[in-house]
Structure formats: C-alpha cells, structure tokens
Design goal:
Elements lengths: L1 H33 L7 H76 L2 H10 L7 H4 L12
Length: 152
C-alpha cells in the first residue's frame, strides 16, 4: 500500500512540476514574445507566482485528501478481516512453535555430533574456554542417542 501511495504522490508532484515549468516557460518566454515585449513585466511574474502558490495549495489539498482516503480504507478493511484471520493466525503460530522445537532438536543434535567428532584435547580446551558459562545440555552427554520428533 505504501509503494502505491509513493507512486501516486510522486506522480502528483511530477505533474505539478511539469505544470509549473510549462507555466513559467509560457509566461517568461512565450507570452512576452507573442506580445512583442522584450521581457516579462513584474506584474506577469507576480501573477505566475500567485498561480504557482494556488497550484501548490491545491496539490497539497489533493494529497491530504488522498492520504485520508487511504487511512479510511485501511481502517474499514482491517476490522472484519481480523476476526476471520484469528484461526489462521493461531494455526500459523502453532506451526511456528513446532518449527522452533524441531530447530532446537536439530541444533542439539548438531552440537552432540560436534562433541563426538572433537578430540579429547579439543573437548578439554572447549570446556576451559566456556568454564564460566553453564554447560550446554546438548554437549553434556554427546554419546546419547539423537531423538528428533516426527514431523506432525
């Protein structure tokens, strides 16, 4: 939704800048040349500035209205969907929890395999390096069999 808003806002501002450039070119060059004047008069420049100010105000009002409509659409679309999605959200949460448990089991199995492949000197060196921290339960008994729960 934000990318659509940004594109729309960018399109509105690009249109405004093109309109401003056209107006400046018309009043500065085209209009003065068609009347036979050498340059634009201060009155013409003040008119252009006034019109530019009016255009900016209108564009700001359009952009504000557009943002308000987007917010209303988000609020009205968010209400009924939330109640319909509750079962979906609960299902996804339970699946994520199951995946976390499985990931923890795989991590523990990997740590056990790491302990099994270390030499005795390597194990002692690792234990000395982590003497301050409590032992990882997965590394405490590396010879225990790996138990990974079946996928539900």
């Amino acid at each position: 939704m934000h990318s659509g808003t940004r594109r729309t806002s960018a399109a509105v501002w690009a249109f405004a800048m093109a309109l401003v450039a056209t107006a400046v070119a018309y009043y500065a060059g085209g209009a003065a040349g068609s009347r036979g004047e050498a340059a634009a008069t201060p009155q013409d420049l003040m008119r252009v500035e006034s019109r530019l100010s009016q255009l900016e105000q209108r564009l700001y009002a359009i952009e504000s209205s557009f943002r308000g409509l987007e917010q209303q659409a988000r609020v009205s679309a968010g209400g009924p969907r939330t109640t319909m999605r509750d079962p979906e959200v609960n299902l996804l949460r339970s699946e994520v929890d199951a995946l976390r448990l499985r990931l923890a089991e795989v991590r523990c199995g990997l740590l056990r395999m790491d302990e099994r492949t270390l030499s005795t000197a390597g194990r002692e060196e690792r234990r000395k390096a982590t003497a301050d921290a409590p032992g990882d339960p997965c590394r405490l008994n590396p010879d225990a069999s790996l138990r990974i729960t079946a996928r539900p």
